[in-house]
C-alpha cells in the first residue's frame, strides 16, 4: 500500500502524503476549495488554494461532488481548530469517479427512504459511529469470555426442532427433511458445557414474528454463555461482570463516537457491579404501589419493564419468575418450586430486556415431566435428555441480545440502526 | 464460585482444593483408586488411598463410572510424572450423578455411531483439542483484522437474491416473499467497504449441495474481509499475512492440543510469508508436465489442487484464472482481459482451497454487461450497481473457510470433526 489512512496522518506531520477516500462535503470560494475527505478511518479537511496548485488541479477539486471518490496528495499540517487536529495543504487532486446526484443529501430524509438506501446510508458519520460501537461491543464480549476461559463453540443454525415452540420459526427443506432456523443455541451449548465446562456461542438467530416494535428484529445476533456447575448466583455474577466490562470498554475506546451520537455518557459510567436485584414478587408489588395492577403469574410487558427499570441508574435484575411463564428447561427454586431460578436483565432508560438467563434442570425425571407438560416431542429431545443421564450437573447460562445492547449503549430510539442490514417485518432489501 | 479449575491447580500446590468435573477414567486396586478427573479446562489424576480416607469416601470413589459427575476435594501435590505436573491426594469424593452405561467406551466406534452421539462425543480429549484450536483460529483471525483497523460488519443471512446462482440455496418464506440463506456476505461487504474502508464479516453460510466429500459441509463458517482501494496485489498480501498470523498463533497457544492430535508441527512452522504464487497458465503447464492433461479454460478439481499444492511446503496462490470459470463480479486483468484478477489459496498437504478472493469490478458499464452475460436479474442488483454510480473505487476481498482451515491446521482427514455440530448431506441431528 502506497497511501496513508486519515487516522494515521498525525504521525506524518510536515510530510507529504496521499489519501484515498471520498468527498464528504465541500465549501468553495473563488480562491479556495475546502474539501472534507473521509476514508472510513476518519475525516480530514483538505485546503486547495488557487495560488498554490495548477489550474487543472484547482478545477479537479471544483469538479468533486458529494461522495465522489478521490485521491488527494499534500502536506499534513497541525491545526488546533481541525476536528482531528490536522489538515491537508493539497498539492494534487485525482478524481477516481465523479458521483452524480447522490441520493442522500444533507437535508432530512424519511426512514423508509433511508432504509431503501441502507447500502449508501452506511456512509454517514452517524452510521459509522454506531457500527464502530457495535464492533467494539462484540469484541469486548468475546475478549471477556475468552479471557475467562470460556471456549467458543458455534452452535448450528439449521436445526431439526425448536427450542421454544414452532410458531415463530423460519422453515426450510433440508434434503428429505424439514429444518428450522435456530432461535437459540442453548440446548447445544449445554452439551458443550458438559464437555468443556465453560462455553459460549455467538451468532445470528431468527424469529419469524409479525411484530413491528422498536425493539424487535427478525434476524438478530445473540451471545449465549453456558457453564457447568454454575448455579443461579454464579450466573447473575457473570452477567453483571460481562455487561459492565462491555460498557466500560466502549466508554474507553469509543468516546468520540459516543460524543458524535450525543450520548449522555454519565448514564454509562454508572454501569458498574453490583446491579440491583428484585424478585418477580417484589416487582409486582412495586408496580401495584405505582398504580399498575398486575396479577401474580402475568408476564411483564415493555411499559412494565420501563417503569421498573426507571427506578435505578444501572441495569436491573428481575429474578425468580413463575415457572409457568418461562421455558420448560428452567430449574425450580428449591424453597418455592412454583418459581424458576431465572432472571431477566433490564437495561436502564427504557431499553428493556437485554438478557434472559436461568439455571437449567439437571434432573432427568423432572425434565421428562416438563417436556410432557409442554407437549414437546420426546424423541426430538433424546440427545438433550442424555445430558441428564450421563454425568448431569447443575448448570446455567443466558442469552444477551446484541442489537438491544447496541441501541442502549448508543442511546438510539430504534434497533433498526444497530445492525448493518436490518431484517424487519416486510423488509428484506437491500 | 467456591471451587478450583484444573488448569489453575498449579497455583495451589500444597493447598486443599475442591474440583468439580467428570470421571474420565479409573484404575483401582484393593488399596487405591486412581481417578482421572476432567473439568473442561484439563485433566488431573486423583489418588484415593484406603488408608487415608473414610470407608464411605473410598466406596464413593469406587462407585464412580465413566462420565459420572463428581466433586473431589484434596491436596494438590507436584508430580513430575503427571501430565499437567500435578496430582490430587484425595480426601473427599462427592458423586453428583452416577452415569450408567455411557455409550462411548474407550473401544473403537464407527463414525456414524459417533456422529449420532455427537453431543457426548464432544467430551473426548481429541474433540476438546480440535474445538480449542478452532476457537483459537477464530479469535486469531478476529484479532488480526481488528488490530489492522478492519471494522466488523455483520452481513445478513436472510437475503432476497443469490450471490452466485440459486441452485444450491436454501429457501424459506419471509412473510410474503421468498428468502434465501446467504452463501456469502461479499456484496453487502462491498457497500460497507465504501463506507468504512476496511471491513469484514464473520458468520455462518449455507450451501445446499448434494455432495458428500471430506471437504464439504452444508453449514460452514466463513470470514470475508473487503477493502476499498485494495487492488489484487494488496489482496494477496493481506491473505498471506492473515493466514500466517493465524497458524503461528495456534502454534504458540495450542501446542499441547496439536501434540495430542499428533500433528507434525514442522509443517505448520513453515507457514510464513511470502507464499509461492503461480498463475493459472503456469498451473496448467505444471499439470501437463506431470502427465495430467488439462484444457485451458477448465477449472481445477481436488486432485489437481493436491498435485499442485504438494510441490510446495506452504500455502500456494494460484492467480488469474480465466474469467469464464469465475464469478461475474471479478475485475479483468488489464493486460489480458480474458483473465480475472483473482486467486485461490491452496493449503499444503492435500487440504485444498481455503481462500477464494478477487479484485471486484468497479466500472458500472462493465458490471452491467456481466450481469447480463450471466443472466442475473438487474433489479435485484440495483443497490449493488449503486456502489459503481456513487464514488466507485477499485476494491478487493476474499473469503476464508474456517472448517477447512481447522482441518488443515489440526491435520484431520475430514471436515466433520472441525465444527461442534456438523450439518452434512442427510445429517441434521443432533
Which features does this protein show?
BirA Bifunctional Protein, domain 2; 8-stranded mixed β-sheet; homodimer; 2 domains; alpha+beta; 13 helices; OB fold (Dihydrolipoamide Acetyltransferase, E2P); 5-stranded mixed beta barrel; 430 residues; elongated
What is the overall shape of chain A? elongated
Work out the strand percent of chain A.
25-35%
Distance between the termini of chain A: 31 Å
> Spatial order of the strands in the main sheet of chain A?
6-10-11-18-17-16-13-12
Count of discrete structural domains of chain A: 2
CATH topology of the largest domain in chain A: BirA Bifunctional Protein, domain 2
What does this structure look like?
Two copies of one chain form a homodimer. Chain A folds into two domains: 6-97, OB fold (Dihydrolipoamide Acetyltransferase, E2P); 118-417, Bira Bifunctional Protein, Domain 2 (BirA Bifunctional Protein, domain 2). Helices cover 30% and strands 27% of the residues of chain A. Chain A contains 13 helices and 18 strands. Chain A has helices at residues 55-63, 111-116, 118-121, 125-147, 186-196, 232-253, 255-260, 265-269, 280-289, 302-309, 364-373, 382-389, 402-410; strands at 16-28, 32-38, 43-49, 69-78, 86-97, 151-152, 158-159, 171-174, 177-181, 198-206, 219-228, 277-279, 316-319, 332-333, 336-340, 342-347, 352-360, 395-401. In chain A, the strands form four sheets. In chain A, strands 6-10-11-18-17-16-13-12 form an eight-stranded mixed β-sheet, sandwiched between helices. The first copy, chain A, has a five-stranded mixed barrel with strand order 1-2-3-5-4.
